[in-house]
Design brief:
This protein is 54% helix and 21% strand. It is α+β, with helices and mostly antiparallel strands. The protein has a four-stranded antiparallel beta sheet with strand order 3-2-1-4. Strand 2 and strand 3 (57-62) form a beta hairpin. The longest helix has 32 residues, at 5-36.
Length: 99
C-alpha cells in the first residue's frame, strides 16, 4: 500500500495547521492570564493616611500614618504613588513612615 505525495502533503499541512492553532491558543491564554494578575504593589495617599494597593485593590489602610505630619516631599511621593515589586518591600517601606 503506497501513500501518494498529495496525501502526505495534506497530512503535513493539517499537522502544521493544528500545531499553529495550539500555539496561538496557548499564547492567548498566557497573555490573558498575565493581564488579570496585579503586578505592582503601590503605597499611595488615602485621605490623610497611606494605603497599600495591589493593582486597583486596596489591601490595607495604615491609619496610624497621618500625611499632614510627614515632610512635604514624602507627601508628594505618596500622592503620586510609590511602586514596589513585592508586598514585603512595600511593608518594609511603611516602617519608615510608621516608625
Amino acid at each position: 500500500m503506497t501513500v501518494s505525495k498529495k496525501k502526505i502533503y495534506a497530512i503535513c499541512a493539517i499537522s502544521i495547521s493544528i500545531s499553529i492553532a495550539v500555539i496561538i491558543i496557548a499564547l492567548s491564554y498566557a497573555a490573558k492570564t498575565k493581564k488579570q494578575e496585579p503586578t505592582q504593589w503601590v503605597l499611595h495617599s488615602y485621605g490623610n493616611n497611606v494605603a497599600l494597593y495591589n493593582g486597583e485593590n486596596i489591601i490595607e489602610v495604615y491609619g496610624s500614618i497621618m500625611l499632614d505630619t510627614l515632610p512635604e516631599e514624602d507627601r508628594r511621593q505618596l500622592d503620586n504613588g510609590i511602586a514596589f515589586l513585592t508586598r514585603e518591600e512595600a511593608v518594609s517601606a511603611i516602617e519608615d513612615y510608621d516608625g
